[in-house]
Amino acid sequence: MALLHPCSCTTPPSPSPILPFKNWTPNRLLFTSPALRRRFPPNRLPPRLRAALAVESPAASGKNRGGDSPEILLEVKDLSAAIAESKQPILKGVNLSVYEGEVHVVMGKNGSGKSTFAKVLVGHPDYEVTGGSIVFKGENVLDMDPEERSLAGLFMSFQSPIEIPGVSNIDFLQMAYNARRRKLGQPELSPIEFYGYISPKLELVNMKVDFLNRNVNEGFSGGERKRNEIFQLAVLGADLAILDEIDSGLDVDALRDVAKAVNGILTAKNSVLMITHYHRLLDYVKPTYVHIMEGGRIVETGKESVAKRIEKEGYNAIPAA
Ligand SMILES: Nc1ncnc2c1ncn2[C@@H]1O[C@H](COP(=O)(O)OP(=O)(O)OP(=O)(O)O)[C@@H](O)[C@H]1O
Ligand SMILES: [Mg+2]
Fold first, then answer.
1. In ligand 1, which atom is closest to the CA atom of 159?
2. CB proximity list for 69: less than 8 A, separation 6 or greater
3. Between the chain's N and C termini, which has fewer beta carbons within 10 Å?
4. Burial of 252 (0-12, 13-18, 19+ CB in 10 A)
5. Which residue is closest in CA terms to ligand 1's atom 9?
């Protein structure tokens, strides 16, 4: 394999970099990188970038994660939210419980509120919560800003991933990753060690090594952006990964790679919430539950058969949708 990095190591460094970092402030990272600092003053950093920089590891975060029975990760009760500017209500009483080790799929017609729900979970400033609660690993998420939510272990892959001109993929990931290690009192990884850590993850997503030296998402095709999102998730980790249409625009091989990567990051301790329009993703990533959203609410929850029914009969198969 042709390497852009002067390294041929493939073994992840030891000790495992996946560790908790409770007090890490993602904004600090901005002050370690001249490129990021110039481009994004801390209060203007896009939420997606903050999330990618701040997301916590899946393996050791949270409370009481050592027991055998799955813990509840996310509990959403009667959540309502409006567009911050216009006050137009979008979410109208969403209820959802996600336990460790589960894969939840949210489907629904265009405009039914799926992306809004995902963005409200990570604290996107376009929306205002007007009622209900979100508890993540026992903590009230509504009291947390987006960075804190990321620190708590929430990762979101947006439907339309943003570009970060002037910042290469590998620099971005290495800065985020090393910021964690510093916070943990661990030595930073050198470029060669970091390459050794991410190399197997490149293979997991089947992403060409050239993409490491390209600016984040700049000039990437739609499918390449989606692949890159999953790569970021594989490198940075998460307790709950929210993937908004990670399958859209993917050719059949890319879909298989992305699905393989999602399966690869799943453990008994973390969970995935996937928004999709197509059953084909579920051929590869097996859902624990499929939810149908309509009019800003989850109107039906079932097993994979719900998605099959929709594929065959459309949303008319769901009486409330
Ligand atoms: N920031 C915003 N400003 C104005 N309208 C918004 C905003 N965010 C969401 N909406 C509106 O809220 C509704 C729900 O949007 P959302 O993006 O959540 O739908 P969706 O279920 O993800 O749809 P799709 O399947 O097409 O992605 C839509 O009518 C959308 O136009
Ligand atoms: Mg959407």
1. 27
2. none
3. N
4. exposed
5. 116
